[in-house]
Design brief:
646 residues, alpha+beta, Double-stranded beta-helix, TIM Barrel, 8-stranded parallel barrel, elongated, binds NADP nicotinamide-adenine-dinucleotide phosphate
């Protein structure tokens, strides 16, 4: 289309795109722009004038289609809608919620009360109302942050219990109510029997027939707080505020429309306060005919003000772009902490039973162990205690361990693995890694365990071993389901390529030293190309190596001016900045701490986001400074030269 748009990010008053953007340019950049700005306002223009007369719903539909998004099947919504016929198809655009003009539609994410939610919501203004009728927007991560700071107990309850929605539906659409969509059109059925059959297949749903053909439907338990893997942000993603303020009509009582997942009552005063917060922080502007907005439904909520006059706003709901193979995940935070990109490390942990138990109790679900850490028995006891006390189940945990250097010969791989497994008191590992690409002389388990770097005569002896043969045995662990994922650690890019080129099962991850003094951009790029996870060890840099005399206080990143300034700016600690930086680089940091205070501090990194500018400032601290270098410490400690990096 030969159209230009005046474009404005709706959440940032300070940004106005300097020049109008062409249709093609917008289409090309639409997912990126929306990811970054969360909501965009487009005003189609020609010769710097608004196209009011000749821009039609047909043109709007073409923009939507040109974006090449996956189709979203509208199903389960409460709002009555009418399809708008355009030549491109009859189910592409429809009226926005046709709730009566004098009724406000509260803030909501489109279809957040169901499991079927669109990625994008777009609106087009065919006719602007006389007064009011705006579509205010709210950044959901902002709401999450507000709750996180002001109501930590409420947040915990939402996370652990989830929520349920209760709505009474008439049989036919009732246009006098904003939630008047009847059960026949909602569930695409004709009879009560058909509806019952459909509902009985939906796990967790309860229903009750009422008089006049109405039905009360209680949803399954749904998460109310999500983690957005794409933006690395938590969001308040639900329909709580919409239901609490708006699910009121002649059938429904808004105060009975929601409850926690255990059916207990949600605190009304908190919901009222969150509603006020949204009102005070919402973004509002006036519709003009021809205006279009795009909303990333994972990041922003919308509402609708009351209005007078005739208002025609059309909507279109879509999923992510067709060409996107790995859609970013939305992780519902309900007993689902295992998917959070943060791991707990157990190297140099002394009272490992207590520390492991405490870490799990504080909410860590990924644990990073190794034979070489010499504490797997105690770690196993800590895991057992946490499971026995019902803090979590085995399947809620993700446990990593590593094959030590003396077990590289194919006949020793299973031996080393089984010892780790029995020490940890587990029957499978989630991830098993080759600890170092360094093969050492075998030391029998009954003679010395953990074997460490030297043999029984206290000498470090390198052994000839083809690592691809070791990898074949790792693959056997995978195929026999003893290790759910297999990977490597401390592998350089050429070694990684070697394994990838000869393997049947590619490494799931490479665990490497990563912090702002050692950013390893090329390795990150390569792993991304191989679709391999990057796990970042020693994310705090020197901190872990000072006690070993392998680093000094001056090298501590927490004392660096840049990190300190950024920490001050976000009201976070330097450690939190380092961990957050790692997460925003799409790596999974492993952080070790023996203190509960530090454990909690290190987990409190999901309520803020480092800007791209600050990320670049931190990236620039790189000096390729490696603290964990066998080429150095093996020579110093064991008089054996075995570099693995050039
Ligand atoms: N694959 C490998 O070869 C390899 C190598 C090294 C490490 N790793 C893994 O990665 C994990 C993490 O690396 P790491 O242990 O070397 O280092 P790290 O986690 O970067 O740093 C740990 C050090 O930082 C301190 N610390 C933690 N949180 C803090 C906070 N909020 N404020 C102040 N100090 C804090 C800890 O002290 P406190 O205990 O007093 O809190 C400890 O001294 C290891 O435990 C291990 O699981 C793997």
């Amino acid at each position: 289309m030969n159209v230009y748009y005046k474009i404005k990010p709706l959440f940032d008053n300070s940004v106005e795109f300097a020049n109008p953007i062409s249709h093609d340019e917008f289409i090309k950049n639409m997912p990126k722009l929306l990811k970054y700005h969360k909501a965009l306002h487009l005003r189609p223009i020609q010769n710097n004038e608004n196209i009011l007369s000749n821009f039609t719903e047909e043109n709007y539909c073409q923009i939507v289609l040109d974006c090449k998004l996956k189709k979203f099947n509208y199903f389960g919504g409460a709002a009555p809608r009418t399809k708008i016929n355009v030549p491109q198809g009859e189910d592409l655009i429809f009226t926005a919620n046709e709730a009566p003009a004098d009724q406000l539609i509260p803030f909501h994410h489109e279809l957040a009360q169901s499991k079927n939610t669109p990625s994008y919501v777009s609106f087009y203004c065919k006719k602007s109302p006389e007064t009011g009728g705006e579509t205010p927007l709210m950044d959901s991560s902002l709401v999450y942050r507000y709750i996180h700071k002001k109501y930590p107990e409420f947040e915990m309850k939402l996370k652990s219990l989830g929520v349920r929605y209760i709505r009474i539906l008439p049989s036919e659409n009732d246009l006098s109510s904003p939630l008047g969509r009847g059960w026949k059109s909602t569930y695409e059925v004709e009879t009560k029997k058909e509806l019952e059959e459909k509902l009985s297949k939906m796990i967790g749903i309860e229903y009750l027939w009422l008089d006049k053909g109405n039905i009360s439907i209680k949803s399954e338990v749904l998460p109310a707080i999500f983690y957005n893997e794409e933006t690395k942000e938590h969001i308040f993603f639900n329909s709580l505020i919409a239901a609490f303020n708006g699910w009121q009509d002649k059938r429904n009582n808004r105060l009975k429309s929601i409850c926690y997942g255990d059916n207990s009552e949600i605190e009304n005063d908190i919901l009222k306060d969150i509603t006020n917060f949204m009102e005070n922080n919402k973004v509002c502007w006036k519709w003009m005919e021809g205006d279009i907005i795009w909303i990333d439904n994972r990041q922003a909520m919308h509402s609708r003000n009351t209005f007078t006059g005739d208002r025609k706003v059309y909507a279109s709901l879509w999923n992510r772009p067709i060409n996107e193979s790995n859609e970013p995940k939305m992780i519902g935070c309900r007993n689902n902490l295992v998917n959070m990109p943060l791991s707990f490390g157990l190297w140099k942990v002394k009272n490992a039973k207590e520390v492991t138990y405490n870490a799990i109790k504080q909410g860590y679900r990924k644990l990073d162990c190794a034979c070489d850490y010499g504490n797997e028995k105690e770690v196993g006891e800590g895991i057992k205690q946490a499971i026995d006390e019902g803090i979590c189940k085995r399947e809620d945990l993700h446990i990593t361990s590593k094959l030590w250097n003396t077990f590289h010969k194919p006949e020793h791989v299973m031996l080393g693995f089984k010892k780790t497994l029995s020490d940890l008191k587990l029957d499978y590992l989630d991830l098993y890694l080759i600890h170092f690409p360094i093969s050492l002389e075998y030391v029998p388990i009954d003679k010395k365990y953990p074997p460490e770097w030297v043999n029984l005569d206290n000498i470090m002896i390198l052994q000839k071993q083809d690592l691809s043969e070791t990898w074949k045995e790792m693959e056997n662990l995978y195929t026999s389901k003893l290790a759910r994922q297999i990977g490597v650690s401390n592998f350089s890019s050429s070694l990684l390529r070697q394994i990838v080129n000869c393997c049947k099962i590619a490494p799931h991850a490479n665990q490497i030293e990563l912090h702002p003094y050692l950013t390893q951009q090329n390795m990150l790029k390569l792993c991304r190309e191989y679709n391999m996870e990057v796990i970042a060890y020693s994310p705090l840099g020197a901190k872990s190596y000072i006690e070993l005399n392998m680093a000094n206080e001056f090298q501590d990143l927490c004392n660096h001016k840049t990190i300190n300034n950024i920490a001050l700016h976000y009201s976070k600690t330097p450690v939190q900045i380092l961990l957050r930086w790692a997460i925003q680089r799409n790596t999974i940091p492993i952080c070790k701490s023996s203190s509960i205070k530090h454990m909690n501090e290190n987990m409190d990194i999901f309520d803020f986001s480092i800007t791209e500018t600050d990320m670049i400032l931190i990236n620039k601290l790189n000096k390729n400074l490696r603290f964990n270098d066998p080429g150095k410490f093996c020579l110093e400690a064991f008089k054996t030269f075995c570099p693995i990096y050039d």
